[in-house]
Specification:
Strand content: under 5%
Largest sheet: none
Order of helices and strands: HH
Oligomer: single chain
Shape: elongated
Structural class: mainly alpha
Radius of gyration: 16 Å
């Protein structure tokens, strides 16, 4: 009973953290895009790293949604 309640709360916090991380990365990508189009190599590298991070977080979020649907 109580143990699973605590587990659900920690999962919820983890998911909220994941989603907020994802939103921060997307925001960061938006800031880098213009500089990337202007040919800024540093921005291009940061954008590539942000995309890689976002892909991992999106996968995590998708898996979590699938797990929640099965419950």
């Amino acid at each position: 009973g109580n143990q699973s309640g605590n587990n659900n709360n920690s999962n919820l916090r983890l998911n909220q953290t994941r989603y907020s991380q994802l939103m921060n990365i997307v925001d960061e990508m938006g800031r880098e895009i213009r500089n990337t189009y202007l040919g800024n190599k540093n921005s291009m590298e940061r954008l590539k790293r942000a995309i890689a991070s976002a892909r991992i977080l999106v996968k995590d979020c998708q898996l979590e949604c699938e797990r929640n649907l099965k419950q």
